[in-house]
Design brief:
A: 162 residues, alpha+beta, 2 domains, 5-stranded antiparallel beta sheet, C: 216 residues, mainly alpha, Rna Polymerase Sigma Factor, Chain: A, Arc Repressor Mutant, subunit A, 9 helices
Chain lengths: 162, 83, 216
């Protein structure tokens, strides 16, 4: 199956430091119950894992679907989605604007929640995505967190052509 | 274990870090932990501090057996042999 | 940025072969075993006996007991684990005699202990409750080698000595001497969960001590 993966600029994984080979070369890993295996995103998972570079990956072998990721025993990078790098700041701004909009629309307005938004901008897309979704949850409860994340997914999917 | 099943706080991260490093979190908990680290520079720094601490502690062990201890133990070994 | 902690793997030794050589009077085999295990063994009694000298005596008594009990070693556990259990038993007995010891598992379960002071995080009435007020400092920006310099290690050794007994013992066995968690649990007869709590609390205190040192 086709999925997605965020990597650092040097093509290493954030949590394992694993250095991925160039696109085309297969990587294997055994899937243990809770931990190892190759992690990847479905489109709906992208906002949770936003990182520096985005790759399309092909997954094979054993596949386990979890709530915000897929774990595979075999995978290879297919291509880098360079369009994502152009979208970092735009996406971050979109999430920030959503955060402002949500906070101001609440009754009463959520000034303390809103105050976090602008200082968080330098930390980028992953943090602002969380901030916006968390503000949505503060207003309308846990389901609103997921709804806001789905909005983020739709925004990304449209602009990345996924 | 955590207040929400959709996200965890920094305060929860600092309590879960050992379980995470020990691979004792279940799949969902580990995922929430990593999602948080993905967006929180503060917690990435904290986890790195824990890693540095563990590495530093690994450098302070005494590995030498004092000579007189060694002599006493060898004597005990010979006594045991001849018992 | 590596996140996984590294476990030191103990040398692979054929246990029954070692036992055979000891029984045959091979002094070099005995010396090698002492080199390998004596420092680790010293970490165990400190939870039960008052002084370092007492701990030394416990370990020496343990070696005698190991030799006398060699005929009974069947290889069901590793030789190291078997030896560590002997140390633990003698330490407990001596500790009871010194009227200081409490059963190890009760040392583990005491109270709540926060890894980081609650005032470092946003409060229950704040937005984003539980998130950092101010991020911890990036130690990699410190002058080179500062985290692992001799002065720091000396201070850290001091802090380790100052930990509560149960935490010190687990941190020493796991992080100083590289024992695996199964070995520590078998030696101290505590559950994996218990062991993790002690490890967590001990490591958290040591991190906090380093942080205080670097923030000056």
């Amino acid at each position: 199956m086709i999925a997605y993966k965020f990597l650092r600029p040097d093509r290493t994984s954030l949590f394992t430091d694993f250095a991925w080979p160039a696109p085309g070369t297969w990587v294997e890993a055994s899937i243990e119950p809770c931990r190892s295996g190759i992690h990847a995103c479905r489109v709906s998972d992208l906002p949770y894992w936003a990182g520096h570079q985005l790759y399309e990956v092909e997954l094979d072998g054993e596949l386990v679907e979890q709530s915000t990721k897929v774990v595979a025993s075999r995978a290879r990078l297919v291509r880098r989605l360079e369009a994502w790098e152009d979208l970092h700041d735009v996406y971050t701004r979109m999430c920030a604007d959503r955060g402002h909009e949500l906070a101001r629309s609440a009754a009463p307005p959520l000034h303390d929640w809103e105050a976090v938004i602008e200082p968080s901008i330098p930390e980028g897309p992953a943090l602002l995505g969380f901030v916006a979704a968390r503000i949505a949850e503060a207003i309308a409860g846990p389901p609103a967190y997921r709804t806001e994340r789905a909005r983020q997914t739709d925004w990304l999917a449209e602009r990345l052509g996924l | 274990m955590t207040e929400s099943d959709q996200h965890i706080t920094c305060q929860e991260v600092v309590e879960l870090v050992t379980d995470y490093l020990e691979r004792a979190l279940d799949a969902d908990e580990a995922s929430l932990f990593e999602e948080h680290l993905n967006f929180c520079d503060g917690c990435i720094t904290y986890v790195e501090q824990m890693r540095v601490t563990v590495e530093a502690v690994g450098q302070i062990g005494e590995t030498d057996v004092p000579a007189d201890t060694r002599e006493k133990l060898l004597t005990a070994f010979r006594d045991w042999q001849h018992a | 940025m590596p996140i996984q902690a590294q476990q030191r793997v103990p040398p692979v030794v054929d246990d029954l072969d070692v036992v055979g050589r000891l029984r045959a009077g091979d002094e070099r085999a005995f010396e090698a075993l002492i080199e390998q295990l004596h420092p680790t063994m010293l970490a165990v009694p400190r939870a039960h006996v008052r002084t370092r000298a007492s701990a030394e005596e416990v370990v020496q008594d343990a070696w005698v007991a190991v030799l006398k009990g060699l005929d009974r070693f069947e290889g069901r556990s590793s030789l190291k684990t078997w030896i560590m259990r002997i140390v633990a038993n003698i330490a407990m007995t001596r500790g009871v005699r010194e009227a200081r010891s409490t059963p190890f598992s009760s040392l583990a379960a005491e109270g709540e202990e926060a890894a980081v002071d609650a005032d470092r995080f946003r409060g229950p009435q704040d937005a984003f409750t539980g998130h950092w007020n101010a991020y911890p400092r990036d130690w990699s920006t410190l002058p080179e080698q500062a985290p692992l310099g001799r002065e720091t290690l000396r201070a850290l050794a001091h802090e380790l000595e100052a930990l509560p007994d149960a935490q010190r013992t687990v941190v020493a066995l796991r992080d100083v001497y590289g024992c695996r968690s199964e070995e520590v649990c078998a030696t101290l007869e505590i559950s994996a969960a218990n062991q993790r709590v002690l490890l967590h609390r001990g490591r958290s205190r040591l991190r906090a001590a380093l942080e205080r040192r670097f923030d000056d």
